[in-house]
Design goal:
Elements: E1 2-14, H1 23-26, E2 29-46, E3 51-56, E4 61-66, H2 78-92, E5 98-104, H3 114-130, H4 136-150, H5 158-165, E6 168-173, E7 179-183, H6 188-197, E8 198-202, H7 209-221, H8 225-247, H9 250-264, H10 274-286, E9 288-293, E10 301-306, H11 311-318, E11 324-325, E12 336-340
Parallel strand pairs: 3-5
Antiparallel strand pairs: 1-2, 1-12, 2-5, 2-6, 3-4, 6-7, 8-10, 8-11, 9-10
Helix pairs in contact: 2-3, 2-4, 3-4, 3-5, 4-5, 8-9, 10-11
Amino acid sequence: MIIRSKAPLRLGLAGGGSDVSPYSDIYGGLVLNATINLYTYCTIEERSDAKIVIQSWDADCRQTLDSAPILDIDGHASLIKGVYNRIVKDFVHSPLSFTISTYNDAPAGSGLGTSSAMVVCILKCFAEWLALPLGDYEIARLAYEIERQDLALSGGKQDQYAATFGGFNYMEFHSNDMVIVNPLKIKRWIIDELESSMVLYFTGRSRESANIINEQKKNTEGGNSAAIEAMHRIKQSAIDMKRAVLMGDMNSFASILGKAWEDKKKMAGAITNPVIQQAFDVATAAGAISGKVSGAGGGGFMMLMVEPTRKREVVEALSRLDGFVMPFQFTEGGAHGWKIY
């Protein structure tokens, strides 16, 4: 039997960073995000030879291991091993034998939540294979615990829930890691207008988000008033952008996006750099209205708002740089799995 799964990546539209502890524990966080038609993928094939074969194409890792109740987290395919260890510990209580292959549509460090989406995707594959009684909240919470607690990887909480639920979601983050996901029903013409008005550009530089997130945590813990006030405004931008999206107010959407980027740059020194600024300058000169970097910052993908009739100009201008424009569409569905007999 073969089991497959896929989970969507997301654009962080507003409020990103307010889902990171300790800010979310002290002040509460709000995030608006939406999944797009770029995905993470996982395939599991049962084996009968007491072996585990791991193929992580994005990490350029292939390993053959003896089946065991715990796999050593050695820096190779850590996401796969972290999920496996938790599945065995919490559910099956005995070693499994299988071949697992994973890959995704976007570069690592893209700012689209690839790592968290991959953890969700792998979990969904195991859940499908083993018929585990896990709903959407349970999958997302378990993915968060594996990534942030078991593997000690820095980050927030929004990505796991975005990949699991899919679609446009307005998320609330409270103390004790409590998360409430509010799906938004967006009219089709508004989604079409958003897609017509947005350019997704990869800066040509993947980034390690951990350092940026750790600096953000330090600012909150140390009571950095400028950084905390900036994050308060970023959280408010999620409220304002939700209203703009539901009403189809593209002018407000673009304005909120731009102001949130200015506040985001105050959260950590590495959020922007000359490569990002050059791309913003080129896009703005060609007609872009506003934009922000998706995710923690420092590189990865930029979201740019443009007047649809000038979109071609912006795309052609950006094509002269070292990165590339990624066509995309918004999607409704979250992570799902299926079996092939």
